[in-house]
Backbone:
């Protein structure tokens, strides 16, 4: 009985193989699915509506020129070259967006997300008087006493601009404005960028304690304005600012860039266009300092509140930054 079942099974296999052999090769092939670039799901309604115009960032593995060509083929308008992330900023209709998504030269399409300053400014003088000097808050005064003051280093402040102040060492030609390109240099209609510049590099000295206010009071500063008078902007404008920093790092000896701004989290960091731009800046040998914690847990941990600046101290990251210094500091030199 078992032998008969075995022979029947063998016969069935042979018949099946014989039938398959008579079919055309094309009938056996799996039909390939239509190509679709990776796209932010929030853009799907625009495709459905068809005529809605949206601001997007389009990327191509072949580079920004290929991305620009794809946008034009689809019927969109290129608004900025974002070469640092192999992409462009563009305005496209929903119909053009559908064509872009099907273009095999396009790798990723995302929204040109809005950004805003991190934290708020206070007009309450009592609030200001309650604050300690930034240098004391993070024990930078100890570094100052050991000669670590930022001398010989330039910091690019990518923000709302920097206004001229006597206590700030501004680089003469180190000012660029991506919001109002024809405006005078070194202006800050909002105030946040000047505040951050003061925290970073103010050389104003407190007479009572003999401590200079800034964390790096001898550092020079360049102003990269990417946010408007309301403290708001877009990914594409910030990325243009970061491109300028990379292009001018040798001219101004820019070693650090500060980004005290934030945006809605819509995807993993490795897909995020602004994160990719920040990574590219880092790969060009510039330390990137970003804001974090302003919208997080308000409670204190181990007696210390979450601060504004996140990341690892520059002397700990120096070995990882391409072209960075490998100078080691005493153990106490760490961010609390």
Residues:
């Amino acid at each position: 009985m078992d032998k008969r079942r075995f022979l029947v099974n063998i016969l069935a296999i042979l018949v099946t193989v014989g039938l398959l052999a008579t079919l055309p090769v094309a009938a056996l092939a799996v039909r390939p699915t239509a190509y679709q670039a990776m796209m932010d799901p929030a853009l799907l309604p625009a495709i459905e509506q068809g005529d809605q115009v949206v601001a997007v960032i389009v990327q191509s593995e072949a580079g920004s020129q290929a991305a620009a060509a794809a946008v034009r083929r689809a019927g969109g308008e290129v608004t900025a070259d974002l070469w640092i992330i192999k992409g462009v900023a563009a305005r496209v209709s929903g119909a053009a967006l559908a064509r872009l998504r099907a273009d095999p030269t396009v790798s990723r399409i995302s929204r040109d997300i809005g950004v805003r300053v991190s934290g708020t400014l206070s007009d309450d003088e009592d609030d200001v008087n309650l604050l300690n000097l930034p240098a004391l808050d993070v024990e930078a005064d100890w570094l100052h006493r050991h000669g670590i003051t930022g001398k010989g280093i330039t910091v690019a402040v990518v923000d709302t601009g920097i206004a001229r102040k006597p206590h700030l060492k501004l680089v003469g030609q180190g000012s660029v404005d991506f919001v109002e390109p024809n405006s005078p240099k070194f202006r800050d209609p909002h105030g946040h960028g000047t505040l951050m510049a003061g925290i970073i590099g103010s050389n104003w000295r407190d007479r009572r304690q003999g401590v200079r206010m800034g964390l790096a009071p001898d550092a020079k500063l360049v102003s990269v304005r990417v946010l408007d008078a309301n403290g708001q902007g877009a990914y594409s404008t910030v990325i243009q600012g970061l491109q300028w920093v990379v292009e001018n790092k040798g001219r101004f000896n820019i070693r650090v860039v500060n980004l005290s701004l934030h945006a809605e989290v819509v995807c993993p960091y490795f897909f995020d266009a602004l994160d990719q731009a920040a990574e590219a800046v880092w790969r060009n040998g510039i330390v990137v300092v970003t804001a974090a914690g302003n919208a997080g847990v308000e409670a204190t941990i181990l007696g210390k509140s979450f601060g504004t600046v996140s990341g690892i101290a520059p002397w700990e990251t120096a070995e990882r930054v391409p072209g960075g210094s490998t100078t080691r500091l005493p153990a106490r030199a760490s961010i609390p």
